[in-house]
User: Fold these one by one.
Assistant:
Number 1:
Amino acid sequence: MRCFEVKQILQENFTAAGVELEAEVKTHLDACVKCREYLQELNNMASALIPLDSFELTPEESLQLTNALDAQLIREPAPIPVQDRENRIFPIARILLSAAAVILMVILSTSPTQDISIADTDYEGVIEYSSLDDETMTSIFFDNDDDLLPSLFDQTSAAYLASQLRPGQVDDVFESITDEELAWLEKNFSLEI
Amino acid sequence: MTNERNLIQEAIQGDKKAFTSLVTTYQNRIFGFIMRMTANREIALDLTQDTFLAAYQNLRGFREDSSFSTWLHQIAANKTKNYLKRAKREVPLPENYDTPSEAYRPDNDYDRKEQQKMLLEAIGTLPEKQRSTFNLRYFEQMKFDEIARAQEVSVSAAKTNFSEAMKKLKKILGK
């Protein structure tokens, strides 16, 4: 065993409870003056730190703490179940996700299913997709006026799309989305622009 | 420990007496940890209270992949970190930094207080992360993987922080 290994072991095991030494380390220490000196330094440091070993609350402080906590706990409901807490933390995300789902369903029910080239239309954006159980390619068009594209491409609705479509099936998006949204979509959909 | 688990479960169901038992068990350790971080008794008491309140509010989030003690220290470390960040200071030592009343700690004398003050000052010079790591490892005897979890850093980062703290303290205390 080398000195630096022994020193590292001694240091990493240095606590207020003392150092418990393995036989191998003890053997090294028996033979190595420098490592013994290092251990002595640690022991000196431990002695110096004894006054900080325990900071105890006085009985008065303990009572003060308990009373203050009791007063606060009275107002507290029982700890929130995990499921409920998740609902509280992400209510807006859940609402947005639901809204996105509804919007998408409406769009899907009214969108043309013909393969139409973007150049032939006045539409500002298109997503071509095929559903998981149907290989037919469907195009969803977005008119710039109705502002659907930005709302659909926020991260929540994009997350919804990601759960519904196969990766790589969203083929094209246009300039009405922000660079940030585009980067997110590129990352998550393997977009080819 | 089974008893502790029972207490936690009872507290989750809203049994505040069970939670008070947990507070009684850990209050000195949490207070000591925060005291060594802030060197201010009054603030340490406030932050101890905040820690236990947050623990109660988040008790459902406690997962038994770490010990309850580690989890509490994690909350305490975060509370302390936030406090120190807000305070933006290097933990000055107020006049009343010191120990409890003489009646409670009759062995306290001037020298002991001075020694504590000097040590707290030395520890107070460490960056927050190193101070916290040293505190958790040396005084709380937490394992490095527990410290890493409590501080949301890697185990090697926790070891490095401890090593750096040791170097600095050895230098200061060796003067």
Number 2:
Amino acid sequence: MSILAIVQANEQYNKSIELSVQRAKTEKKYQEQLQKQWDRNLKNIKSHQLPTGLEIPLIAVPQIDHPAQIARYQGEWGFPGQFPYGLSIYEKSFLITDGERDHEEPTRIFAGLGTPELTNERFHYITQCQQSKRLSTAFDTITLLGRGADNPDYFFDIGEGGVSITTYQDVQKLYEGFLDTNVSISMTINGPSLWMTAARLQAAREAGQNILKVRGTSQTDPCKEDDAQNELLFPLDKSIRLAMDMFEWCARNAPLYYPINVSGYHIEQKGATPIQQAAFTLANGFVYVEEALQRGMSIDSIGKRLPFFFTSGMDFEYISLLSAVRRFWAVAIRDVFGAVDPSTQKLKAHVQTSGRSLFEREILNNITRTALELFYALLNYPQALHSNSYDEPITTPTEGAVRIATDAQAILLEELGGFKDMMGFLSDSSGRMKAYHLVLEGILDYFRQINEMGGILQAKAEGFFRDEIARSSALYDHQVQTGQRRIIAVNHYNEGRGSPREVTRVEISTEMKQKRVDDVKRFKSKRDLQKVKGNILKLQEIAGNGGNVFEITMQIVKDVTLDEWTNALQQVFGLYRRKI
Amino acid sequence: MTTNIIRGFIGIKSNDGHDAPILVVADILKKAGIEVILGGYDLTVDKFVEAIITEGVHFAGISSYNGGHIPFFIAVRDRLKIENYPFIHLIGGGGSTISPQDITLLESENGIDKIFKSGEAGLSVPFIKDHYDFCNVPDSPEELIDGVKAGNKLALSAFVNLAEDKARLDSMLQEKIGRINMNEGSEQFNQLLNEPLGANGGLVKQALERSKYLGNCLAQLEPSGNSHRSVVIGIAGRGGSGKSTLTDELILRYFNDPRTENRKVAILAVDPTSATSGGALLADRIAFMYATDKNWVDTSRVFIRSMASRGAGNGISFALPDTIKILKSAGYDIFIETYGTGQPDMGIVSLVDQAVYVTTPDLGGATQIAKEEMLQIPGTFVVLNKNELQGARHVSSLLQGSIKQENLFFTTAIEHNNPGVNQLYNALTRHFH
């Protein structure tokens, strides 16, 4: 892939804005043309009444004194829903007119605790007040590493930090009552993603649903695992191949499903600056685009099915981070990969507030931090949004804390005058423009460096991303330790502040863990072992000869357990070599 | 007795990949003059216990963030008791998920020495230095000899500690006595015997006696009663050339090879001692993924020991010859990994049956190749690793011009079942017949 082409396309685009502004200053005909477009856009904007009785337009637009400003606005941001999607990929989002919502609310709350049964209960609790049901699943690390809950070496870790899943039956229990196709289920899983996605799709099928209509997302982002999260089961190149096997299969058979979610969140949590998060995540996205193109997929079928995932944190850059990422992506997808269909150019994103920005001391302050990060996130018009619970520094979120985190979103979107009243009410502010340009330039600079290193995979192999992240992480720690970065009640105004004395923590009891072991053992013992063995051999054969591993996983997932699937493929591909 | 160099093992518990805290601690400990062995993340109780025993450490640190820490700490403690490990000193940390109540529970009711809260990493050094006794060299090594012969890992490890202690005393004595150039028994020499040795070294006399005594114990070790001879392979090369990964891949092949079914293998991984602090960061174990995983190899037949160079400047440690002798007497084949800091790792060549020199495509041009001393030794295997990187073709044709074809290998060690690594393994196995 030519990183150089991506760099040049963006440089070219930036230049074209300046050219267009210059023309608008001098060419009469061009001025007229711009003015005509502008008037057309304005004419389409409807008005509505605020609760206080005032009448306002549904979309915010700047006051224009000269056509050059039109050229600037359209080139830099574009109207909501228009290229380069700086303001938003949709024309309207979050508005509530006459008490009616235009779109689904973006709220998507991450949950997973202990057993599939408990997590299922939590899902019912979270979604009871949501109009549209959108689940997000956290798995325990045993599951994330493709292991079995019945492995005695890992007994302590069962259900810690997420739900424990080993068998097909576990997946059925986890999503019971949510397998209807109007529920969108997101799964934060990477190494074992093929197995988990296959189980989830088969569970939907068994519940009588049409897989063509199943909605949801699997994370499946091996590149960022290599950069930050360290949870790959197989070497990176093999992990990318498996991800693409699923991507290709879903494009044909589950076209509404998002099999890959290109994730910057973990990169940021590991210590990356906002710009590093943006640049490395975009780079990872282009890896998948290139791999899919090599398999003969069209840019349209790729671009529409490749959503992203970013952090919203306390740093200034977050005011415009997602906007900048969207523009950089759209320019490359249009001008390098030749996508003319706007819906291919539009980068869809889920945003989560930053876990790293939360602290144990004076723990309720985390509610304020999260609320402000939500506000920054919303300025960028993401498609889905998760707010962290204030107690996350010390425990898997408790029920009460989850409720407050969910309410925060509703307060911002439904109570606060702003998002519900006028699309983009602060979007093209001067401060946002500054942050936007800083991030765009920062991304471009990283892409130039990656180009000099011979490409994205080459830069990864040399540890470039990891080293950059480690450097930023050390700096951040230093700033927190020395107080250069102010953290209220932690390193500033911290006298007499303490850690919460009485905190409810989510406890996964020994009985609960034992139940998991028993359930998995029972499932395993009830199977026709000859058949299981045959299925595993089939899986290994296809993995070895380059066939589609997802397709065979769909066939065998009902009786081959997660740990068996992992072991079988590790025999073929070897282990992922950890970097530290 | 003279104060030993402090050795500690630190790692992150199973199903946990949060490696930021432990990297901070490793750096602090190294700078405080401690030899810290870094075990990486996702370590099971088995892996912790195995590492603590074979590394012969004075203390171990467990980092945990993901939860499940209380039973984990207790399990490690209990297993060390069962294994009769003499130094059950466990400390821990990892973040706020270990609550104040958990800390109380672990410290006052479960014999965990100390849990450090987030931000307290700096307190670990004074705690370790104030609370632990670092003399883990056995008082009467004779008792260990039967254990070594039987291949008991605890005895082997204790004996290696002894060899390392002897090497330490010898190099201190060398420095003290060697400079004066005198005869034993001379007046000047006798005078010297009552002088102190180093900061904590006691008197010269005591050190000499101790060294002699340890030498006698080592002399009592006999070659193993095995029908086969132990094979010693030395893997040298610059840092970052992939020696540890290559070693790990070779160990995997060793265990897949029916010819080695009844043999045991040791890995001795040498890393440099910091000249400024005297501490060391011994991090090779992280790369030994297959060699430490019971799902892939029979870990009961693997013995891994990380060694700090402690002043030896040629890729090895002064304790290496005695350590080889100890492991040989227990019937182990041995893979030695030198530390490679750019200097030629020539120290290894005379100690091994087969020297392997690992290099990468950024080796340089013809002049650089002519300067690499190990490349000039006939019979050394030369491995061009990371053969997939840019520049490999240029360097490989240069090497082909100067190295015999049967001694030259092209590998991509990070690739599973890499054909180049297979060829290297097969070439090495001629020593196993």
